[in-house]
Amino acid sequence: MNKNSGKKESLWRNNGFQTIAASLLCIIIGLLVGYIVLLIINPGGAGKAILAIIKNFLYYPSAAAAMKYFGTTLVKASALLMCSLSVLFAYKVGLFNIGAAGQYVAGAGACLYFGLYHGMPWYVCLLAAVAMAAVAGGISGALKAYFNVNEVISCIMLNWIGLYCVNMLLSLVKEQSTPYTKSLSSTNKSALLPNLGMEQLFSKNEFVTIGVPLAVVMAIIVWVVLEKTKFGYELKATGMNKQAAKYCGMKEKRNIILTMMIAGGLAGFGAGIFYLTGIEQWMVQQTSVPAMGFNGIAAAFLGGLNPIGTIFSSYFIQHITSGGTYVDKTMYCTQISDLISAFIIYLCGFVLFFKIWLNRILDKREEKRAAGGQEAVKEQEAAKGQKGGRA
Amino acid sequence: MLLLIQYTLIFASVLVLVALGGCFSEHSGVINIGLEGIMVMGALGGALMMKYLPAGMAAPVIILAVILASVAVGMIFSLLLGVAAIQFKADQTLVGTALNLLGPAAAVVLVRAINTAESVDNVSSTVAYGQAKKSFIVNMGRFEFNWFMLIALLLLVASYIVLYKTKFGLRLCACGEHPQAADSVGINVYKMRYAGVLISGGLGGLGGLVYITAGVSEWKFENGVAGFGFLALAVMIFGQWKPVNIGLAALLFGLFRALSNVYTGFDALVALKLPSTVYNMLPYIISLVVLVFVSKKSRAPKAEGIPYDKGQR
Fold it and tell me: What number is the average pLDDT over the span B60-70?
């Protein structure tokens, strides 16, 4: 009995387990708040609406249709995963990459420009997306390293500058009558990512491409780089203490710039594997930065800042975001899922406190048990008589 | 030209208000990245107040009610940051970012719910307030004087006095520079930080209201406030966390923002044949350039961003 509870305790003590518990708690509270908001707006359909959000593609009764929309959700989730890896990578080095959104935009602009205007094949477009986004990230990094400009503010400014620049650039490849760019499938088929037969698994959903497994592979690579290489260790050390890193002979300025370039490249890769499937065309009159990069922040923190964890959290965030489109629109709007994911980010701020609080409770319980155990021993001692007890 | 001055002044008023908000919060030691979201919520409060106020009320009453609504909503919303950052020692950048996402999402959900409740076909996220907005504006010949310009100026002067000439302001600054020292002489750091965050919430909310009433008479909440909260933070850094400098910095940034609205009125600028997008980008580019020059010798409050822990020495 005692041994059993001891094992359970060690599970609660486990940092990874605590992180998962905290994330699940965030999700539950987030959904609960969403449900309450729905109740306030219209009590009649709140239960149905929150179920629609949670069910997402399961909304379709036929398995084939559900599989098809599952594929679409996966495609979007893979782009989101890359954005959240971008945020995560920078955060591990002590930088808050709120510019993932802008870097994503830069990547989208570059890959669509090369695909539509120059008719390049997909791998060139993908590389262009990564390079362009890395430059966008690198600017923030350089400003931080050399001029001490707060990376959050420079990233936000670059988000807007990037959005307007990309709108101008992609006006070159706009359809005549609509504000959207030409579609890749009609203009340049070679720029579409190859499917390798994966569309068969998802009821002929041609948007499911090698992008999805590539994103997962990237998550694993990021984990390996951060946890298992000297390079990752150096970057993390720079993030912990810039001065100490410099003292140890690390090039702290180079590390900051490199980090932001890698973070940018990751976000750009996400844009590439999203737009090069042809799933969406860019709207050149867009006046707001796509939400993908900001949702990436939610996914990164919900995943406990672990690359493997973000695979699951990105999928979850995309799942409820897509699910938002299935709510009854005569009563509610799709942005309810944005509200839920925003609230989940907010709750992620409490994770540290949650862990401290949990550990404190565990400490107290252990103390109590230790005290209780001592008393039991004393009683035994009393029964045996003092002499025997002491020996 | 007159139009340029008018727009410069009104945008500068927005920036002054929001930047002062950020200034109060940071002087107390809490980084308020969430000003953007607070602006949206304040704007929402003000817009809904304007929408629901009965027509035909006296102008001063309308002005007061609308201001109170946006300040109150801004303050309540900023409490989310206060509680998380002060009570629960959360990462301030993270929570601020959450506010930025939460604000627009909540505003859109709320406005759409109201619109849909009014008529099922109306799924827009727009609030119209043309009638009530007129009470803010006094026409002086061709110049539209907006009461908010005066209010912003008064609040700027008041902030200077509060921060540098009152016990409260000096204590607030102490909490942002060295909270342990402040605590040791009997200042309640938590209370001061709450005060800082609440003031920034009120000012940010008011700034949001001024922003949406500058020039237009209805607002689509899906657009948020287009990075103005962050521009205000750039203004604050450019102003080195000092009210007077913030006022001057806001005028400069306001000018560039106003250019994108009225550049068609200048023959010299039209002759350049730049696409309008360039003018839209201008405030953001300028702020990046400015930040490059001023960030190196930044006078940021020393303890900003660090949660106060009583036990720490």
Answer: 88
Q: How many domains does chain B have?
A: 1
Inter-chain CB proximity B106 and A294 less than 8 Å: no
CATH of the domain at A63: 1.10.3470
Is pLDDT above 70 for A391? Answer: no
pLDDT tens per residue, range A61-114: 788 888 888 888 999 999 999 999 999 999 998 898 989 999 999 999 999 999
The answer to whether residues A103 and A82 touch, using CB atoms and an 8 Å cutoff, is no
Among B213, B234, B216, smallest CA distance to B18 is for B234
Q: How far apart, in whole angstroms, are the C-alpha atoms of residue A162 and residue A74?
A: 26
- CA–CA–CA angle A330, A336, A338 (5° rounding): 145
Closest-CA residue to A332 (of A60, A52, A66): A52
In a domain, B311, yes or no: no
Give the mean pLDDT of chain A: 86
Structural domain boundaries, residue A177:
14-348
Number of independent structural domains in chain A: 1
ipTM of the complex: 0.85
Report pLDDT for A386. Answer: 54
Which of B91, B226, B227 lies closest to A349 in CB terms? B91
Name beta bridge partners: B127: B219
Angle at A347 between CA B43 and CA A75, to 5 degrees: 90
Query: Measured between CB atoms, does B223 come within 8 Å of chain A?
Result: yes
Q: In the structure encoding, which two tokens stand for residue B187, read together? A: 């200042």
pLDDT tens digits, one per residue of B31-58:
888 999 999 999 999 888 888 887 777 7
Distance CA A307, CA A223 (A): 6
Place of tokens 């100026």: B153
Any domain includes A30: yes
Provide the pLDDT confidence category of residue A8 given band limits of 50, 70 and 90: low
> A182 lies in a domain?
yes
What does the mean pLDDT of chain B come to?
A: 86
Cβ–Cβ gap B227/A41 under 8 Å: no
